[in-house]
């Protein structure tokens, strides 16, 4: 298929650190891509630039024909809320909110009324095998259950792209495999493009393609996707 996410010439400094040194990436709609590389190589910085969480010093990012690097901060924040989903390591759920309210949150932030948002939240929780857990607090869930709640929250707004940063980082390997199986099955069924940052080769094995980053540069011939 055609390019869905395009990054061209991304440069990013954090203070004196040159975190991205001219990164080009092309990702197709529905692709599952793993961004891999050593700690400190720039993976998270790349993910944050692709997702419009931070702005590169130079370069452009386009997602589904929207050049997000050209948007104002308000427009970018709206784009993130309505078009993108995020999953991070365990611990990202709001501890005072029940599972259903954690999942409903992105919809409510985008303006959906709570009652309607909860219907969607329940449907996603059921789909991820969490029926009956709707009212539990994060502290009342196992690590795997909490991460499934985080997946539901990432998917609830039917994002065009789901960004996951070490989504199984704190889970034991069996639980991690189950979460990855569920995640990849759901994104394949919904046609969601998935970008996963990981340094775990087992997590990357669920992807269609790996992009390797070292010292702020792409080191694999993955720029144009040989698929
Ligand atoms: P990775 O995700 O591969 O571990 P990062 O993108 O987090 O790499 O970091 C790349 C480099 O930029 C590292 O040297 C890191 O210490 C530095 N860095 C990242 N974020 C910041 C920040 N907010 N302030 C200062 N340095 C940062
Ligand atoms: P990861 O585990 O994904 O590589 P990091 O530990 O690199 O995450 O970064 C976690 C957060 O801290 C990020 O928001 C990143 O921007 C920030 N960060 C990373 N390195 C530094 C640093 N040297 N100084 C300040 N903030 C940093």
Automatic annotation (TrEMBL):
Q: Which residues form the ABC transporter domain?
A: 5-227
Q: Which Pfam families match?
A: ABC_tran (PF00005)
Q: Name one GO molecular function term.
A: ATP binding
Keyword list (alphabetical) reads: ATP-binding, Nucleotide-binding, Transport
Q: Which superkingdom, per the lineage?
A: Bacteria
User: Does Glycosyltransferase show up as a keyword for this record?
Assistant: no
Which InterPro entries does this one have?
AAA+_ATPase (IPR003593), ABC_transporter-like_ATP-bd (IPR003439), ABC_transporter-like_CS (IPR017871), ABC_transpr_LolD-like (IPR015854), MacB-like_ATP-bd (IPR017911), P-loop_NTPase (IPR027417)
Protein name, as recorded:
ABC transporter ATP-binding protein
Q: Tell me which CDD domains the record gives.
A: ABC_MJ0796_LolCDE_FtsE
């Amino acid at each position: 298929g055609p390019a869905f996410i395009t990054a061209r010439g991304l440069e990013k400094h954090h203070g004196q650190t040159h975190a991205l040194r001219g990164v080009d990436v092309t990702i197709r709609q529905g692709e599952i891509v793993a961004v891999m590389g050593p700690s400190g190589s720039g993976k998270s910085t790349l993910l944050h630039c692709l997702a419009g969480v931070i702005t590169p010093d130079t370069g452009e990012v386009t997602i589904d024909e929207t050049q997000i690097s050209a948007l104002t901060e308000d427009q970018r924040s709206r784009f993130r809320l309505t078009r993108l989903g995020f999953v991070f390591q365990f611990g990202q759920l709001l501890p005072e909110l029940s599972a259903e309210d954690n999942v409903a949150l992105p919809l409510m932030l985008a303006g959906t009324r709570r009652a309607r948002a909860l219907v969607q939240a329940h449907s996603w929780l059921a789909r991820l095998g969490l029926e009956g857990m709707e009212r539990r607090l994060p502290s009342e869930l196992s690590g795997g259950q909490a991460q499934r709640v985080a997946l539901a929250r990432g998917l609830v707004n039917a994002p065009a792209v789901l960004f996951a940063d070490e989504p199984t980082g704190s889970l034991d390997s069996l639980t991690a495999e189950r979460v990855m199986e569920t995640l990849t099955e759901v994104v394949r069924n919904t046609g969601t493009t998935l970008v996963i940052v990981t340094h775990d080769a087992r997590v990357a094995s669920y992807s269609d393609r790996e992009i390797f980053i070292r010292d702020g540069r792409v080191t694999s011939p993955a720029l144009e996707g040989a698929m």
